[in-house]
Amino acid sequence: MSGGPGDRIGDAALAVEVADLVKRYPKAPSDSLAGVSFQVRRGEVFGFLGPNGAGKTTTIGILTTRIRPTRGRACVAGVDVVADPVGARRVLGVVPQQNNLDRSLSVRQNLLFHASYHGVPRARRQKLADGLLDQFGLADRSDGRPDDFSGGQIQRMMIARALMHAPAVLFLDEPSTGLDPAARLFLWEKVAELKAGGTTVVITTHDMDEAATLSDRVAIIDHGTLLALDAPAALVRGMTGERTLDCTIEPTSGGGADPAAIGEAVTAITGVNQIEPLADTGVGGWRLRIYVDGEAAAFVAPVAQAISASGGRLSDARLGEPNLEDVFIHLTGRALR
Amino acid sequence: MSAATGEEARPSPALEPLPHWGPVQTFVAILRRDLFVTGREFPVFLAQVILQPLFLLFVFGKVLTELGYARPGYEQVLFPGLVALAAVLTGLQSTALPLVIEFSYSNEIEDRLLAPLPIGAVAVEKVVFAAMRACVAAAVMFPVGIWILGSIPWQRSTGLAVAAMTILGSLLGASMGLILGTFVPPNRISVALTLVLTPLIFTGSSQYPWPSLGNLRWFQVISALNPMTYVSEGLRGLMAPSVPHIQTWICFVVAIGSLVVLTAVGMVGFIRRALG
Question: Cβ separation of A86 and B21 shorter than 8 Å?
């Protein structure tokens, strides 16, 4: 492709390219971003996972031309956001955390005026707005003012508005914060649809499920540093630490099972690090969480053996697979808020 | 909603490229949005801008003159001054408060800051639009003046210069509002407006001719520091040349100079607010 600024989209092999990005706010004691580098492929859903204040919003702010980096390079759809912020704003769409809809305009007018700022021709604006209002379930109330809508609907309006100029990369900043479960599911569905339509989506979240469900790849960020970047499944697979095995134990018909003896027998197995009683099942047995090194499945047989040798019976075993949360705790030494 | 609807509606980056679209067109589109919103509430807007000058004109120009407390002919002094006041004040109010609200409470401005035009151009649009409102407010003073005073000072030969000075005054007010709206923290804006507006209104030579302040030297000096003085004096010289006034060319030079400086300062404030 060649020519005007409108079709720079086609030239870019990468949707987002960030190299050694540093941001230090005036008077701040340390860097908010301490040299972050990553790349987002075209058509990918890219998740940014981290606690509040980790640097997610600063990164998005820089990529969307609203924050000037202290150092480093950032490109969106091949356009350098520092050298050519106007060009970058043509190819990116932003859905912010807070409602920033134009309160003086109706829902439909919000979409139409946004498109007019971006030079979408009038006839195409109307058609696009109709389609998006319908797609986002807003068609029947498109003449209402944003103030009269719920948080979930506001969110949909902001996404629909951002799509009016067909951005190559859509940035969603903490999109499900404050949404009810139904609105959250609707959002997830829409993100999947966008991806299917070829739009690159960059999404920040501190929600593990959201990151794992939506993202092709997840970047974990904390204290302004990128700690890990991979597909959610690969990040979890890479966890070398502990797995858990949750067991339900019942006394054998002969009785005489001694929890303390069972505990001792299980702890004696090589590879078992720790045991922890869980809430009672209420049906006569008791439950135990066993922390092990390596694959938890490999411990089912030895644990069952140890239990029956001590007069009990293993009636249920659940393998505790690590999730992104565990990855995060492993990387940062603390839980996500 | 069916999946098929979504399929059709989804804009894809692969769509044909948009026609060439420059920052100028985006600027016009943003201006159109402001005109659209104001146009819809035009009667409210008119009431907003007319009320204060209307009462000033009535009490000072009509009541006090009829009661004999003000000399006949005072309206020659007052009317051009009130046109200046309407221009500067409306300009200021049309930028200051909306900016404070849009930057803090509603965040509305973000959609325009993310539009494909330089950030500074968004500030310029704010100033241009506020000046348009201010010009309307100043223009409305003419029929109101004729209605209340019976006649207003007017020279056919200086009509264009009056229009130019009015536009300059409107821009000047808007640029003052740009500074207030971007430098004053949201929680202080009502205090700031009171602290700025009252002195601005009463030291801007709109109710008295500046050269006659010889016996009140300190007040003359203070008035000379208010850029609005040069708009009032400029309009007075153009509309009622028999009233003592500062020379018109001086008024133009100082007003243009103030506009350049105030806009530059306001622009710094705007960009600081808009960019982290």
Answer: no
Mean pLDDT lowest for which of A114-123, B5-14, B22-31?
B5-14
Say whether both A215 and A278 belong to one domain.
no
- How much is the pLDDT for A113? 96
Domains held by chain A: number? 2
- Would the pTM count as exceeding 0.90? no
* Residue A275, domain CATH: 3.30.70.1340
How large is the ipTM?
0.86
Strand order in the sheet with A79-80: A33-41, A14-23, A71-76, A79-80
What residues contact A13, with CB distance under 8 A and at least 6 apart? A42, A78
Residues of B with Cβ-Cβ distance to A194 under 8 angstroms: 10
Kindly state the average pLDDT of the residues A98-124: 93
Same domain? For A73 and A120 the reply is: yes
Instruction: Choose the most confident range, by mean pLDDT, from A191-195, A318-322, B225-229.
Output: B225-229
Domain coverage including residue A256: 242-321
Asked if pLDDT for residue B62 goes beyond 90, the answer is: no
Same domain, A17 and A165: yes
Interface of chain B toward chain A, CB-CB under 8 angstroms: 1, 5-15, 17-21, 23, 25-26, 29-30, 32-33, 36-37, 106-119, 274-276
Residue A326 belongs to some domain of the structure: no
The C-alpha atoms of residue A170 and residue A64 are separated, in whole angstroms, by: 10
Q: Residue A134 and residue B29: Cβ atoms within 8 Å?
A: no
pLDDT (0 to 100) of residue B2: 39
List CB contacts (< 8 A) between B25 and chain A. 119
Nearest to A66 among B21, B25, B276 (CB): B276
> Which of A209, A237, A265 represents a domain boundary (last residue)?
A237
Task: Kindly determine whether residue A86 and residue B275, on different chains, have CB atoms separated by under 8 Å.
Answer: no
